[in-house]
Amino acid sequence: MNQPEFGQAMSDFVNSFPGKNFSTSQTQLIFNKAKELNKSQFEKILRHFILDAKFPSPATLITAVIIERTKNRSWEENQTQYKLLCEDCADTGFLFVREQSIPEPLLMRCYCPNGASNEDFESIPQWNKAIGQIYDKQKFPIEGFKPNGGLETFVKKLSLSEPIKILERWQARKKLSNDFWKYQIDNQKTQTTEGSNV
Description:
mainly alpha
């Protein structure tokens, strides 16, 4: 897909959501990931969000693009043809970290440019070395983004429901993480306020 085709598709998409838009840098990040798709593949992704009446964050749209790209090649081809800019977050803008009180890994915004542009979950903090002394970075579970049963099986029975399930699990993890960090921030504010009243 070339830049004019992408621009037209994005313009039509944004027009479906009055008052919503992507910044120039976010649009460029999306194009960098989507340019390997053909126009109809990209429009299919956008139609999903239009039908769902949900305007995606740049990270969510990029994740949907990555999932769509994996459907058309073997997983090994994807690994060799697509070079990740950030190995720690697999270009999603989110890192997996471990917190002892929660059995599931949590997300933090990555230190890379994709993480800096993730503003849809404002309570999720951005990882840095000081935070890393408390919350260990985990290896990004890229396998979790592969369709169940392997890519070849998935392509044979090509269904839109599997990528949507992957995307829904990803959204649920972001919400869980956002709620956890929001609680931590609110709890810290309460303790600070109570401490100043003593």
